[in-house]
Amino acid sequence: MGSDRTPIFLCAALLLLLVVGLFIPNWLVFLFTISMAKGLVVLGLILLMRTGLVSFGQGLYYCLGGYIVGISGQHWGITDVALVFLLVVLAATLLSSILGLLLCRYREIFFAMLTMAFSMILYGILVKSEKLGSTDGFIIAQATLFGWQPEVEASGTWIFALAVIITLVALLVMHLYFRSPMGFGGEAIRENEIRVEYLGVSPRRLIYIKYVVAAVLAAFGGAITAVAAGHVDPEMAFWATSGEFVFIALLGGTLHVAAPLVGAFLIEIIRTIALDLAPYTWQMILGGSLLLIIFFLPKGLWSLLPKRREEEGL
Predict the structure, then answer these.
(1) CB neighbourhood size of 91 (10 A)
(2) Residue 151 per-residue DSSP state
(3) Phi, psi dihedral angles at 54 (to 5 degrees)
(4) Could you give phi then psi for residue 231, rounded to 5 degrees?
């Protein structure tokens, strides 16, 4: 543990990003903000993937976080980010605690399909809800922070700074979690669940906890996206959105807690360039990129970096 330099690396990298954000164009600041938001969702997805489970329903909590932000401002008059994010955590924890009781009993394709089914149920409800904007969604009220309402021109910068802080805390906590007995227990379940039971540990309980943690991370990502974009819509819960998170996980890899950020930023850059070069066929470019990663870098882009043996899997 004494030779672990990952926390120092994470702090240095994100603080550097925070400083760089003061000098780069607004569109790039927004791109970084969205990348960090999606990176948080994928971080939770990686938590499940290390247990041998793939969720195609993280869009459920991503959308839930976004809509809690929107509903709080438009219908409840709550715009303070601290209070809104607390509501996001409570809502994601409550819903995932209920659904997790069922999902922790399933494995492999059954887990994946059930998670996607619940996400699509939310999508269907939102599409039919005229009060929530139906398929168009609705605009988010301008956020405040402890009563302070920044100027519109500076909103992108302070939201970016908030995203950096939340992301840094999440990465540090998850890094410590992955190195804990409970973190290693996920990999043990993936390799041999029966032996884990023989050791007196409940695989269902571990999966249940990991599912709830992944849900909260996804809700945080949705909340940051909503505040940054100023708009929410049912597409956040659509299966294609959840599929994109799996895409990012494959792109960045699962070898390090920072890998989701690398994958999320890269996919946003590829999407931006592809939309400019080929606005009607940009999906083919993304698909081709994924095929190249699967064929030549099955462990993701992070596998390109040199790593010490004791740091593998952190």
Answers:
(1) 20
(2) -
(3) -120, 125
(4) -160, 145
Give the pLDDT confidence of 57-76 residue by residue, as tens digits.
Answer: 999 999 999 999 999 988 88
Of the candidates 3, 13, 47, the one whose C-alpha atom is nearest the C-alpha of residue 178 is: 47
Where does 157-286 show beta strands of DSSP type E? Answer: 231-232
Pairwise CA distance, residues 61 & 198, whole Å: 33
* Rounded Cα gap, residues 314 and 297, in angstroms: 18
Q: What is the dihedral of CA 103, 302, 3, 169, to 10 degrees?
A: -50
**Over the range 119-132, which residues count as b (16 or more CB within 10 Å of their CB) and which as e?**
bbebbeebbeeeeb
170: left (phi over 0), alpha (psi -120 to 50) or beta: alpha
Nearest to 107 by CA among 51, 182, 184: 51
The residues near 84 (Cβ < 8 Å, ≥ 6 apart) are: 68, 69, 72, 73, 78, 143, 223
Please state the pTM of the whole predicted model. Answer: 0.90
Q: Comparing C-alpha atoms, which of 204, 218, 298 is closest to residue 254? A: 298
